Amino acid sequence: MKAVIFGLFALTISQLLIAQVADDQPITAEKAEKYSLTIMANGLYLDQQGQETVDIIEGDIAYLAVLVETPAGQSVLGATPKFTIEGTTRMLVPGEISPEMSTDESGILEFEIIGGAKGLNQLTVTYGNNSATLLLNILSSDIKGFSPLPTLEGGLNWAALMEAELEYAEDHVQVIFPPHIAQQAGKQVKLTGYMLPLDADIKQQHFLLTSAPPSCYFHIPGGAAGVVEIFSETSVEASWVAIQLEGRLKLIETSESGIIYQLENATLIE
Q1: Which of 38, 115, 171, 270 is least surrounded, with the fewest CB atoms within 10 Å of its CB?
Q2: What pLDDT, on the 0 to 100 scale, is given for residue 12?
Q3: pTM for the whole thing?
Q4: In the beta sheet, which residues pair with residue 56?
């Protein structure tokens, strides 16, 4: 089970992007004098002003990468670009989502972003004196046809859960929880979200609750901090409608599965 859950977060950019990189041997970052940066994203297009843009649904994850090359097209190994974002979209920077902190032999460094509120955001990647920008067109989650998350008085807020700091090692995830979430460990809490079933039964006792409508079983919206593993003694009917649950919150500081939140003895709030 752990291997399956961890695999949900292990989707690599190579499955989403086809990058043309130089055939020459890479040059190390300290030996390169000038750089060329390219942001790569699935579904990238030019807007009416000719600016590179990508569409993201609120709360959804976009898998991106930056390619660092010399002007001659030679891959740069070991470059550590800096990322800044204007708007409500959240960054999952390298080191938070994987052990890789710098570009590989192909000059590529992968990263992820989680769509914020509906609107236009901008991502800027810099290294040396060069930079690249990408417009993030955040679309309303209504586009998926899901019901919006109801306001749950006194319930946990997904934005607060996503403040957890994650560091991915080779075989586990190390987590530092924000104080206001750490204080909830072992307590009865309420949470609303979308069900992601873990088997084919219409009735579920063990499933995932996600912060945004799920796209598929291999694409968890919100990342590791945007999903809670649910254990319920009573069956909950699978549905596309947002559900509200109450249960005992468990925090996992060192996770081998990629799951950092669990809700035990969960019951459905009608």
Answers
A1: 270
A2: 40
A3: 0.60
A4: 138
